[in-house]
């Protein structure tokens, strides 16, 4: 089964360790390689990208490595790709035109 | 790893290599320096490649001088052409003051290039004899200073190689060694963590100031300087904070003792053991020369898959990218990306390799394919225009 790595117990996202397809079930593991349970993906998520482990509301922080590295701009359900289509920086945003380019190049499903 | 077997220097430092530096104090002396080096095993050429003027180039010349007093350097030969402003003694004096043997040669006073090469080979022979007679000692680990840098970064860097190196750095600090990182622009967004890690509010203020100075240098209105690319985001990095935090992971979690300035007026060195930040550039070739000048004997370098190397400070390369890893990489962290290996395991591998390298074992590409010894400095005129004072 494809694995997703949760870096810190406080994290609400895990990073995909291989490309995974929509509807696929992935195994979430800890840094110590312990199994933390399974999760179904709501859209395809490529290697290195993040899946939401818990639902986020707008303004909720995205926690990775135990630290807030962004905030939700819309509801992010569990199993959803947490990326430029639903997350923004806390300090310095990527320009909107670049975000659209990233969404187009990655083929991200925007709801 | 309580001690390492190294070369005792007169200034109290202990080297893990026993090299001689040939300095071309101006660009016209480069060929002479190379000709002497080709016939002198264990010598390294460092060239002031862009000028023969002194005024305005103090920072670069400071880096050159301090690199020549790196623990891995036994002595130096300083050569200049003789028609510029950089007198060889200006460079040789501070090196000599550390107890290292130094010889100087000025081409136009030595009847030209061929005689300077002939005379240089004679003079360097005495420095080689001195280097070969250097006493080897069992040095306490507190004499070890490790540079930490990332380059050619990708998704695997923030997850596998950087945190593994960070954990190894924490263990090194616990043993009593010191380490230093740089790349201030990649600390943008990490200020809240650095505030907790700085040993005093004054150290945090200095960190904040130097990060903000660096931001001014890169974000100049009307210029297009990238801090985050579309490629970064397709690789999975969503925000600048996420990118910075991946980069910060390589510094581990120990308190930050100080941030060491490198500028036209000074080059600060650590005063107590521990973890440090510095103005070491994020550009790889120049960063190795900054680490050399700060006094690091060895560099831990994390990457997607490139093979950065420096002739003065051995570079231990760590990669977690299974598609790009090759024979240049010393530490394989790809198991972490497959979910089959742990940071703990890889950090132990890093310490095992490091213990070998500081006791004389070669890194994967030591002796081959070195990067150029780039001497990077901030332009004093631009600094003035950006209202950044050199303090």
TrEMBL record, chain A:
Source organism, top-level taxon: Bacteria
Protein name stated in the entry: Altronate dehydratase small subunit
Automatic annotation (TrEMBL), chain B:
Keywords: Lyase
Keyword Lyase: yes
UniProt xrefs under InterPro entries: GD_AH_C, GD_AH_second, UxaA_altronate/galactarate_dh
Domain D-galactarate/Altronate dehydratase C-terminal: 141-378
Domain of life: Bacteria
GO biological process: D-galacturonate catabolic process
A Gene Ontology molecular function term of the record: lyase activity
Cited Pfam families: GD_AH_C, GD_AH_second
UniProt domain D-galactarate/Altronate dehydratase second: residue ranges: 6-132
Similarity comment text for this entry: Belongs to the UxaA family.
Name of the protein described by the UniProt record: Altronate dehydratase large subunit
Organism of this sequence: Pseudovibrio denitrificans
């Amino acid at each position: 089964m494809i694995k997703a790595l949760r870096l810190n117990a406080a994290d609400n996202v895990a990073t995909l360790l291989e490309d995974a397809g929509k509807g696929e079930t992935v195994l979430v593991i800890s840094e110590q390689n312990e199994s933390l349970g399974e999760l179904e993906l709501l859209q395809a998520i490529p290697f290195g990208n993040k899946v939401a482990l818990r639902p986020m509301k707008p303004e909720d922080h995205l926690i990775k490595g135990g630290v807030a590295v962004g905030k939700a701009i819309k509801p992010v359900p569990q199993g959803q790709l947490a990326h430029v289509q639903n997350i923004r920086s806390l300090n310095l945003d990527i320009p909107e035109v670049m975000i659209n380019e990233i969404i187009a190049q990655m083929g991200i499903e925007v709801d | 790893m309580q001690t390492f077997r190294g070369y005792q220097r007169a200034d109290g430092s202990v080297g893990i290599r026993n090299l001689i530096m040939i300095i071309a104090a101006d660009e016209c002396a480069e060929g002479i320096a190379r000709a002497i080096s080709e016939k002198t095993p264990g010598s390294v050429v460092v060239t002031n490649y862009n000028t023969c003027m002194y005024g305005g180039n103090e920072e670069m010349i400071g880096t050159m001088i301090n690199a020549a007093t790196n623990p891995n350097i036994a002595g130096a030969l300083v050569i200049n052409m003789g028609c510029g402003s950089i007198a060889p003694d200006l460079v040789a004096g501070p090196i000599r003051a550390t107890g290292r043997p130094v010889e100087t040669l000025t081409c136009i006073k030595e009847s030209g290039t061929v005689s300077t090469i002939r005379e240089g080979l004679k003079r360097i022979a005495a420095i080689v004899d001195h280097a070969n007679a250097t006493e080897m000692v069992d040095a306490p680990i507190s004499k070890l200073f490790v540079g930490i840098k990332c380059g050619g970064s990708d998704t695997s860097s923030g997850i596998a190689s950087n945190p593994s190196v960070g954990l190894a750095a924490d263990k090194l600090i616990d043993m009593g060694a010191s380490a230093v990182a740089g790349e201030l622009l990649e600390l943008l967004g990490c200020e809240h963590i650095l505030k907790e890690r700085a040993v005093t509010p004054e150290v945090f203020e200095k960190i904040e100031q130097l990060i903000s100075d660096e931001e001014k240098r890169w974000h100049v209105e009307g210029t297009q300087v990238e801090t985050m690319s579309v490629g970064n985001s397709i690789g999975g990095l969503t925000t600048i904070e996420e990118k910075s935090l991946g980069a910060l992971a390589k510094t581990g979690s120990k308190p930050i003792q100080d941030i060491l300035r490198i500028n036209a007026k000074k080059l600060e060195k650590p005063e107590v053991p521990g973890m440090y930040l510095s103005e070491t550039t994020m550009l790889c070739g120049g960063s190795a020369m900054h680490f050399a000048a700060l006094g690091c004997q060895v560099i831990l370098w994390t990457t997607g898959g490139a093979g950065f190397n420096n002739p003065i400070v051995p570079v231990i390369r760590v990669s977690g990218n299974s598609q790009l890893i090759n024979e240049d990489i010393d530490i394989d962290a790809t198991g972490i990306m497959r979910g089959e290996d742990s940071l703990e395991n890889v950090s132990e591998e890093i310490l095992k390799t490091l213990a070998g390298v500081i006791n004389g074992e070669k890194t994967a590409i030591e002796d081959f394919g070195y990067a150029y010894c780039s001497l990077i400095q901030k332009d004093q005129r631009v600094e003035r225009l950006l209202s950044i004072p050199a303090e």
